[in-house]
Specification:
By secondary structure, the chain is α+β, with helices and mostly antiparallel strands. It has 4 helices and 7 strands, in the order αβααββββββα.
Length: about 170
């Protein structure tokens, strides 16, 4: 194993490779429809109040629309944050990437000692945790519970394949 890691001409075998991204259900068209309707009703309400003499309401309606736009921008930016899991002969590498694609954090686990667990208690229902040597890491917290279960099963299967001696098939 040490020769594989030191030899730059040998590519480590990949057992598992997954990129995790938050799900966003609102498409670009849906966003424009929502913002268009919010703008239309905000202006209509603001103009209605202006006509009866309550002109400051129009300004508050404009601020409300700007805050909604800001909330959507923050939400979309957070939707670009991702996690990348790569299980190879070198170990399990977990990378967290920012919205700009830069690595913000990185962990390396030895798969021989790695436990993949799904929380079942009251406080951590469905939390997917990697644990090794007394340290743990929560991954995929933006995934749905079913997606976390599917990821945990796939990762456990890949770790079992990793742990098999060379030449032995499942």
């Amino acid at each position: 194993m040490a020769q594989v890691e030191n030899n730059p001409n040998v590519t480590p075998r990949v057992y598992f490779d997954a990129a995790l991204h938050p799900h966003r259900s609102l498409s670009a068209t849906g966003f424009y429809v929502v913002m268009g309707l919010a703008t239309f009703f905000g202006i209509a309400i603001g103009v209605g109040f202006t006509l009866v003499g309550a002109w400051p309401v129009l300004g508050f309606c404009g601020v409300e629309i700007l805050l909604l736009l800001l909330a959507f921008r923050i939400n979309y930016r957070n939707g670009l944050i991702s996690e990348h899991l790569l299980l190879s002969d070198d170990g399990l590498r977990v990378r967290r990437l920012s919205a700009r694609g830069k690595i913000t954090r990185q962990w390396l686990f030895e798969p021989g000692w790695l436990r993949v667990s799904i929380g079942r208690g009251r406080r951590n229902v469905g939390v997917l945790t990697l644990a090794s040597y007394g340290k743990s890491l929560v991954i995929g917290d933006f995934l749905s519970p079913d997606e976390r279960l599917e990821l945990a099963d796939a990762l456990r299967g890949a770790i079992e394949t990793y742990q098999q001696p060379p030449g032995v098939s499942a």
